[in-house]
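Researcher: Let's try something more involved. This one mixes different molecule types, so please make sure each is placed in the same coordinate frame as the others.
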Amino acid sequence: MTDLVAEALAGRRRALARLLSLVEDDGAEAREALARLCSRTGRAHVIGVTGAPGSGKSTLVAQLAAAYRRRERTVAIVAVDPSSPFSGGALLGDRIRMHGVSADPGVYVRSMASRGSLGGLARSTWDVVQVLDACGYDTILIETVGAGQTEVDIARTAHTTVVIQVPGLGDEVQMLKAGILEIADILVVNKADRQGAEQVAVALAAALDLADASEAGDGAAWRPPILKTVATTGVGVAELADAAARHLAFLRSSGAMEEREQARMAERLRGVARERLLRLVLANAGPAAIEGLVARLAAREIDLYGAVDELLAAAGMDPASGRRAGVAGEPQRRDDRANG
Amino acid sequence: MTDLVAEALAGRRRALARLLSLVEDDGAEAREALARLCSRTGRAHVIGVTGAPGSGKSTLVAQLAAAYRRRERTVAIVAVDPSSPFSGGALLGDRIRMHGVSADPGVYVRSMASRGSLGGLARSTWDVVQVLDACGYDTILIETVGAGQTEVDIARTAHTTVVIQVPGLGDEVQMLKAGILEIADILVVNKADRQGAEQVAVALAAALDLADASEAGDGAAWRPPILKTVATTGVGVAELADAAARHLAFLRSSGAMEEREQARMAERLRGVARERLLRLVLANAGPAAIEGLVARLAAREIDLYGAVDELLAAAGMDPASGRRAGVAGEPQRRDDRANG
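Model: All components are placed in one shared frame. Result:
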């Protein structure tokens, strides 16, 4: 275990792969490793890239990796696919090989999948990024499929979020939703050689103007640049790498970096605490109590919130105070919001 | 409050709208209402409809609602948009009006948004469906934008999940991912008058064959039918309503209904418990303790799992046992998985 961390830090790829699998699987060993690596993290520039299926995201990420290599930066690519049950390094092999970066020791590729748990995916993506950061990768590209809330949450683990749009994907209104603009630090119109690319860029600029007008007077704000790329030929990719560097410099000089770090940390702290607490309570209540509650829920004998009260009581907690039942002297309450 | 529930049950739409807002906002009153409505739930057929932006999902849902009305069933439509910050009834007005169902007292439309919280959206969608079910809507259509994990999770609150595919949305491989096939009870190729529709249907059938072969011998299994629709003209919509009815009959006769109910209930129980526990612990630890932990996390002085240990301790819990610190006699452990 100690050796695995030391070997990964020394640049041994097989050790890194095993360490990442360990971290994805969670557990005591993984936590020990992460605790050891903690002080070495915080150095990489983490860039999230998100966009709808068919937007050419994967090709753009591979090209971006090649661009960083030309700038002598090492790159790790974390490809997250919430819809796939498979994790590991192999899936992306062909794609990366195609772009000639796979044999390069300065590029490391890891694909990740949900394994059925949404909260788990955000947690494990975060942990995998910590390991890659500690192991010295200068730039970490997190690629997420789609632009749903999950992908948005995963993109939030990044310093810089790139949102890809393409012409001709139908319902442009969908793509201009406030949510997408809000998370974007850089907007990319990929497949810019296609008809309609200019219209997409114009629509994005108009949407940004609208957003700017509504947050009047925020002088230090970053306005997401709108870049055009053709990922298949590499057109515009160097400019994208430049824009990402400018964004990082902005984050550092404006104080937004610290704010973002604190927000990310608070979010991850809540996420991990939530899962840990549930596991503890389920373990303390025991499987029989849980099965009984589920059966009564399915029979409509009890509602969800009543069932949660009983679950906490079965785990030896006071459902209102969260303290051990019969120990804390607080009056009974059943309003969770009062504690929010 | 008592009046609101009684009025909603009596079919007063304004009372229903207010009750749904209450439930979306969470809190003690909402829980009281849900507890009262609990015994009246479990009667509606809940149908989830999901598909990528541009797949014609909204039009199909409106047409499906009209088809159910012709069969003299009342319909509630819950349109969930994880990327939008707005909830309420108004957004869908135009669309539904267009299809001539808005003036119909047998149709109720509600749009929902994330309000920034992913877990919250699954919770509130579930609760909104419970209210509509208790208020006597025969069919509840849950429409989700996109096909990310969030949408998949929301679709799981349904008995029957309809997944829409369309020709020409680019990367077909993306759409044939195991995840999408796994959640689909019915596959729809919408915009079937377009070029490439037959190829999409053939590809879906081939993917289903592959999936069938891998789960050899499961005699009682449901094979998702592949239907073609043109939502804009209504072609194929009656057949879709028929297929949904057949699926419900299958669930009931095969015993899968009970299984699905238990799985849904267990999932919701875990979801609500997770949020409640976090709120209790954050309240017990207090804001100063949390701010201190976040600052140390951002400074890399502590890792996430160590921070969670400290958070639980600050809330008066033993991080290993989940019991009140110093009360339980269990030995210290730091492996969450052992409790999973």
